Amino acid sequence: MKKAEIISVGTELLMGQVANTDAQFISALLPGAGFGVYYHTVVGDNKDRLAQCFKKALERSDLVVLTGGLGPTEDDLTKNTVAEALGLKLVIDEETVKDLENYFARSGRKMSSSNMSQAYFPEGAAILKNKCGTAPGCMINKSVNGISKIVVLLPGPPSELKPMFEDEVLPVLEKDAEEVLKSKFFDIIGVPESEVESRLSDIISGRTNPTAATYVKEGIVTVRVSACGTSDTASALIEKDAEVIRERFGKNLAGENGQSLQETVVRLCEKHKLSVASAESCTGGMISELITSVPGASNVIRSSVVVYSNEAKINILGVDPELINKYGVVSEQTALAMAERTAVLCGSDIGVSTTGNAGPGTLENKPAGLVYVGLYFRGKTAVKECLIRGSREHIRRRVSNTALNMVREAVLGIGEDNDR
Amino acid sequence: MKKAEIISVGTELLMGQVANTDAQFISALLPGAGFGVYYHTVVGDNKDRLAQCFKKALERSDLVVLTGGLGPTEDDLTKNTVAEALGLKLVIDEETVKDLENYFARSGRKMSSSNMSQAYFPEGAAILKNKCGTAPGCMINKSVNGISKIVVLLPGPPSELKPMFEDEVLPVLEKDAEEVLKSKFFDIIGVPESEVESRLSDIISGRTNPTAATYVKEGIVTVRVSACGTSDTASALIEKDAEVIRERFGKNLAGENGQSLQETVVRLCEKHKLSVASAESCTGGMISELITSVPGASNVIRSSVVVYSNEAKINILGVDPELINKYGVVSEQTALAMAERTAVLCGSDIGVSTTGNAGPGTLENKPAGLVYVGLYFRGKTAVKECLIRGSREHIRRRVSNTALNMVREAVLGIGEDNDR
Lengths: 420, 420
Hints:
The structure is a homodimer. Chain A is an alpha/beta fold. Chain A has 15 helices and 17 strands. The two termini of chain A are 46 Å apart.
């Protein structure tokens, strides 16, 4: 495997205005094209520091991907800095000039003189077209002290970077790959990380190929298994571990290979021809948003309701006001009634509901983080009490994952009955 | 200003499984405590490479914050590596042992022997309690070659890192701060980045204190103005620029100082005692989710509907089926009807709707990215056609921002009338 690293340029990253999702995206794809990612570096819009980081990267890595700093504004200095460090001149590309003129004509916007800087590239670079914006990227092959290096410059906005990297960079890198690193991811829900690790200690400890490791996010423990070799060897090594993990965690295995929990739920519901509707109070639409983020969700979800106020729970959903009075809005009983009512209102097989306090502060004397998740599925019901510590955002994400997992478990129960 | 940098440890970051939101969070807060962040580095769970990065960081920065690698698992090697590099022994902390025992007793889980490694710290370190998990952090003051350095070790999971950093680290750093860097952020919607820059060229170009720069995300251009000095001097410098920006961008200014568009909308609606309901097709609940992510949203949103299928638009919302037949579900007319109907159904002053194709693929012969956003506000209506290139996720985010901005503009119109 060759070595790669990513340098992301932008003071906005160092100021904490945005997370470095570009590096994440690229990192997930490079190993499959034969490059292991060893470092991410973020550096500001500062020529000296960028030059220093770039030279260090060029020393220790075969491929250096730079993101950001290709825009038309004054602080966009990546092309200049890289060209200078590599001893290359910047030259104008006439085709890019035409593309820019067309782009501005089409969008009816005036082209400012600063936009013309985007048509200059280090000499000899292959230009990467930008289908979603004005800043093209470029790819440079250059021998440095007798060792051939690849340098890739990509625009910072993720919506521009992603298609450019996938369509124009990755195929070029893949063509030359001999050895690749493949990874597979196994998401386990309902088991703490330390227990996952001790139950998998034989595959986690003391091996070099394949390797396995765990990490946890929003209540889901992910086991990553990675193997090196030709594409076929690597796949076979991973599959052996995959069988062990499937056998040991069974129903707690919520998704494989980066398939999100919501994707698992949509695919399972599709398979069993089941529809889902949510009735969301404290999650405010997040469960429905997660389900509809999956392409093809229209086979599974027709409608959902956000019932934030008590009146909405009563008037739109038809929850009995006596029930809310008696048990409180943050209660098992209300959650169950909401789940059943949304299934009826939306004409869905499954109804899932949330009611609770996402914080900050207390509600009906219930602490922040206390949430009830209700489930209705063809006459059967289930409810879970969650008490989650953390921010409003964290509580809502955890609760949404719990709700999606309850749908998954309910559908899986059905799946087993049918299979027998 | 002193110099800081952040080293995040975790192969999962280099594999692209998660974005480095820890570095983002810390970076946003450090300048206000007198530390400028100059680098982020991500390195894998590898002792040699981590040691190398840590030594380099210690050379060039006054404060080094390390995140991740404090868990109980075998690949958690941050404490060992840092202690070794600083020439410190790891010693057991009896209070942490007690805390761990209590934590496991309370949560009814078995404490595995590997958990005990979490009670060891570099000698002399101040221990940072973990209120949301088992891995405590620590803070080390150490003189290196006669220069005093601060090293902070924090757990990787954001829900554990955030309260620990805010409650236990930041106050200590702030106490000693003489010079701070303050920043203010101005979000401009509806103006392209290059135009924002040229209209602000006098405050962006050729200055060193304050400085200003732009970046763009999901259709919103953010102008960051930063100033250095004592707390009061910095604020005054920023306020001068703020007035310029407010004057030049007026109604296109969607939010200040990191206040999100949804927060702006909630605060505006609160101020004018207006309620909002959404009827979402392609955004699937995202608008409602964004609004309810703001604490206090219950003053503004009572309910919303997700109407993904045509039947739901007709049966739940009461859109005329003839209208959908005549104009298509992806049309101005359907968007407007949805906006009006949701305002009526949810008893809200404002109704906002989305109908379109979030992709991938075509729908009713409409291309991916074509979406209509409808708005109803006390008998008046408005509609916007969006044609957005990019992923399903990107399209949904951009459309949700457009919808929120239409609500903002509608409320602002009212605000002006009242003010006169």
